[in-house]
Amino acid sequence: YDLLLVGESSLVTQLQKEAEEFGVELLTLEAAKAKFAATKLIPHNLPALPAFFVGRESEVNVICNLLEKDHRLVTLLGPGGVGKTRLALEVAHQVLKRRGFEDGVFFIPLAAINNPALVLPTIAQILGVAEEATKTALASLASALKDKHVLLVLDNLEQIISAATAIAELL
Fold first, then answer.
1. With bands split at pLDDT 50, 70 and 90, how would you rate the model's confidence at 97?
2. Contact 150, 108 (CB under 8 A)
3. Do 87 and 131 contact (CB within 8 A), yes or no?
4. CA 101 – CA 89 distance, rounded (Å)
5. 44 - beta bridge partners?
6. Disulfide: which of 14, 37, 44, 110 matches 105 by Cβ 3.0-4.6 Å?
7. Which stretch of 7-11, 46-50, 135-139, 157-161 has the lowest confidence by average pLDDT?
C-alpha cells in the first residue's frame, strides 16, 4: 500500500514511524504525482463485480496462468447457469490487475446477437475500431489488433458458433 503524506507535523512523523513498522511506502506529493504519471492505464470495459468471489480461486489461477503463457484461446465450457460468465469476468479483472494485457481487456457480450455476420462488427464497435469502406470487418479488426496484446472475453459465442471461424482468423 502507498500512503500520501502532505506537510509536516507530529502526526506525519508518527505515521512515518508506524508505516515503517508495517512496511508501507510513504510518498510525498511530488513522488506521488511522479508515480501515478508513470502508471499507464490499461483500457477496458469490464463491468464492476460483486466484492466477493468464493470457491473458484483455483480455476481463476489456472486460467490466468494459461493466459500468461500466451495461450491464444481459452474456452470455458459448462451447462448454462454454472457461472462461466462470472468466472470469465473474474479472470479478466485479475488479468487487468496483473497488467498482463497492456493494450486492453474487453468484455464482448454476444447473448443478444443471433446473426453471425454481426459478431465482428460488434467486437469492432466495442474496441472502437472504425469500419473502413475498403476493408471487411475482419480485415479492419485484424489491422487494428496487429501487434497488440489484448484480451477479448467473448461471452455466449456458442450461440453463434458459425462466427468462430472468423474469430479464429484474428488469432
1. confident
2. no
3. no
4. 14
5. 105
6. 44
7. 7-11
Residues 55-61 have a mean pLDDT of 89
List the grid coordinates of 23: 512496511
Tell me the H-state helices in the chain.
10-22, 29-38, 57-68, 84-98, 119-127, 137-145, 164-170
Q: What is the DSSP letter of 46?
A: P
Cβ atoms of 138 and 123 closer than 8 Å = no
How would you classify the pairing of strands 25-27 and 104-109?
A: unpaired
**Which helix (H) or strand (E) covers residue 145, if one does?**
helix 137-145
User: Within 10 A of 111 (CB to CB), how many other CB atoms are there?
Assistant: 11
Cell of 24: 508501507
Side chain identity at 68, as an amino acid letter?
E
Q: Provide the grid cell at 68.
A: 500468461
Which DSSP helix (H) or strand (E) runs through 32? helix 29-38
